[in-house]
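User: Hey, quick favor. My workstation is busy. Could you predict this chain's structure for me?
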Amino acid sequence: QVQLVESGGGLVQPGGSLRLSCAASGSTLIYATMGWFRQAPGKEREGVSCISRSGGSTSYADSVQGRFTVSRDNAKNTVYLQMNSLKPEDTAVYYCAAGLGRLCEASGMNSWGKGTLVTVSS
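Assistant: No problem, here it is.
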C-alpha cells in the first residue's frame, strides 16, 4: 500500500493562492484515481478533485470549479492541487487519496495521507 504525504498547506489571505503536493512512497500508476478531499471543522469530508492515471481525465467539485487545478507527475509519483482565488470557506484539512477504482468518492479510496491544513483568513 502506497504511503501518501501532503505538503504545501498554510495561512493565506482571501484571493491568494497555494499549491498542495502529494508525494507517494511508490508508484501511483497502479491506482486508477488520485484525489483530493477536504474536511472543514464540524463538517463531513468532501471531495474536491480527482485525476485519472494518465492525467487525461479530471473532475472538480462545483465549489472549486474554475479556481482549483489538479495535475500529476507520474515520474515523480506526485499529485498537485493548485488553488487560486481562495475563499475563507476553503479553510479545511486537505487530504490526498489513491483509489484502485475510477470513482471519485471517499468510500472508493484505498490509501490516504494524513492531511495538510489550509487556512484562508485576513
